[in-house]
Amino acid sequence: MIYKSLVTVKEVGKCGHGHKVGENFEIDGTTTNGKPCLEAATNLYWQAAALTGGANLPWAKGSDKSIVYTHCP
Q1: Is this structure's pTM higher than 0.70?
Q2: What are the backbone angles phi and psi of residue 16, rounded to the nearest 5°?
Q3: C-alpha distances in angstroms, 36 versus 15, 22, 52, 62?
Q4: DSSP summary character for residue 61
């Protein structure tokens, strides 16, 4: 199963890597575009890997449980 997700930066304090509100990263289970920084990629990886494997994350939002809010470390 290929799980494709679009990650959008919604809020930002002061990002040392220059990510901006509205910036997008697309994750397709094996690669990302948009070049997220290491901190963002690390934080997103385990959720993307779980969803790719068919997991249902209990904290996901939306009618199809496809929206997950997270943050950089």
Answers
A1: no
A2: -70, -15
A3: 12, 13, 19, 24
A4: B
Residue environment code for 33-70, b if the CB has 16+ CB neighbours within 10 A, otherwise e: eeebeeebbeebeebbeebbeeeeeeeeeeeeeeebee
Q: How far from 6 is each of 27, 57, 69, CA to CA, in Å?
A: 6, 16, 12
List pLDDT tens digits, range 36-69: 788 877 877 788 778 777 788 888 887 777 777 7
For 25, phi then psi, to 5°, come to -125, 130
The single-letter code of the amino acid at 1 is: M
Structure tokens at 61: 């939002």
Look up tokens 């289970």; give the residue: 29
| Residues 27/7, Cβ–Cβ less than 8 Å | yes
- Structure tokens belonging to residue 70: 């997270």
The one-letter amino acid code at 8 reads T
